[in-house]
């Protein structure tokens, strides 16, 4: 029966264009529909979709401009004064032959001249003590992480519980209640004396403290849950070659020298160099804002973290991880700005402000004209 229904009654979706939907909604909404919000609650909000698309394009443009400005500044500084990368005794004793900053700059700057000077991809693999068929040894992972860094990005410190308490105290309604509690205490002490005059004001103060603590605890717990969810989302598993075998590891355990296997849909976990592959197309729109994919080959072997594999497959050698990658530098630059409120938070804050203003005006009228307000209530 189900197969019969699928064969005879399964109709494809029309998929009208956004312009056609907008014209239909405008024509029907102006003549037939009275309650537009309820009538169109199950259809996409075209205006909101357009705003989200414009916001996304704006962020991509900022990232692209920041990338170009950074590359221009680095090129200018490098042309004015050539940096001399030196090997420390610890790096030499560990058996490595290239400075981590120099290794990261080769990929981030797309420096073919420096890559050829070090012997190409084969020379880089020898200097970081790895081979294409066996990968790195599991016994020297700690040494590689201490020299070349770990594959984690710097995050903002979590907000403490008392910061959420302070935010809860900024509510307009609670501020009005605090003023009312103070006035109640003053009037009560003047009229009834101590301690009966404190009862009403003290009750309001205890209610305010209870609301503030419950709100702060709820927001603090929610922030911890969001942080755990974000860490779980970032914990991507990738395939690498280690000790001569293919393994599946977490992106956080990746080290410089690892041989990473890339396929369609994978997110590039770190900066690296192309070893070999087939028709590898890299989507760099999340990093540079350019919609055209970049063809990567042995002539253009540079692969940046944060990009995605759009087509093909390949193997790459990791040259930079964590904050030494181009993606890590850009994220640290963009994270310096403040956090914007969501549209829902803006609307809720506006409603709370309006309610607070109405309550404050009603309180003033009650204090100035008590008899008139009582007559209106009756």
From TrEMBL:
GO-annotated molecular function: calmodulin binding; P-type calcium transporter activity
Signal peptide start and end residues: none
Segments forming domain Cation-transporting P-type ATPase N-terminal: 117-189
Keywords: Magnesium, Membrane, Transmembrane, Transmembrane helix
One annotated Gene Ontology cellular component of this protein: plasma membrane
Transmembrane feature ranges: 172-191, 197-217
PANTHER family (UniProt xref): CALCIUM-TRANSPORTING ATPASE, CATION TRANSPORTING ATPASE
Protein name, per record: Cation-transporting P-type ATPase N-terminal domain-containing protein
């Amino acid at each position: 029966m189900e197969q019969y229904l699928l064969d005879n009654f399964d109709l494809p979706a029309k998929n009208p264009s956004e312009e056609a939907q907008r014209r239909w909604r405008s024509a029907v909404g102006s003549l037939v529909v009275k309650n537009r919000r309820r009538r169109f609650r199950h259809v996409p909000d075209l205006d909101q979709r357009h705003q989200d698309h414009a916001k996304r394009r704006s962020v991509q443009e900022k990232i692209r401009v920041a990338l170009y400005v950074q590359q221009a500044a680095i090129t200018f500084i490098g042309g004015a004064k050539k940096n001399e990368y030196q090997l420390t005794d610890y790096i030499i004793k560990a058996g490595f032959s290239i400075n981590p900053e120099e290794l990261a700059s080769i990929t981030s700057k797309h420096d073919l001249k420096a890559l050829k000077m070090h012997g190409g991809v084969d020379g880089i693999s020898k200097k970081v003590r790895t081979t294409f068929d066996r990968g790195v040894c599991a016994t020297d992972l700690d040494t590689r992480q201490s020299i070349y860094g770990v594959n984690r990005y710097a995050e903002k410190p979590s907000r403490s519980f008392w910061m959420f308490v302070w935010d809860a105290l900024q509510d307009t309604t609670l501020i009005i209640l605090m003023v009312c509690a103070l006035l109640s205490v003053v009037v009560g002490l003047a009229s009834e004396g101590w301690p009966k005059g404190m009862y009403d004001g003290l009750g309001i103060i205890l209610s305010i403290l209870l609301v503030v603590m419950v709100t702060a605890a709820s927001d603090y717990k929610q922030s911890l849950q969001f942080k755990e969810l974000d860490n779980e989302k970032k914990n991507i598993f990738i395939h690498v070659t280690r000790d001569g075998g293919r393994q599946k590891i977490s992106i956080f355990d990746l080290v410089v020298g690892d041989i990473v296997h890339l396929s369609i849909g994978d997110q590039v976990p770190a900066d690296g160099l192309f070893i070999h592959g087939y028709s590898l197309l890299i989507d760099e729109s999340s990093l540079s804002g350019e919609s055209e994919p970049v063809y990567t080959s042995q002539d253009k072997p540079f692969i940046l973290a944060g990009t995605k594999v759009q087509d093909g497959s390949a193997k790459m050698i990791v040259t930079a991880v964590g904050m030494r990658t181009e993606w890590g530098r850009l994220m640290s630059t963009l994270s310096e700005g403040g956090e914007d409120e969501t549209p829902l938070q803006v609307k809720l804050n506006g409603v709370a402000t309006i309610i607070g203003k109405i309550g404050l005006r009603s309180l003033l009228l009650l204090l100035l004209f008590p008899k008139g307000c009582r007559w209106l209530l009756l």
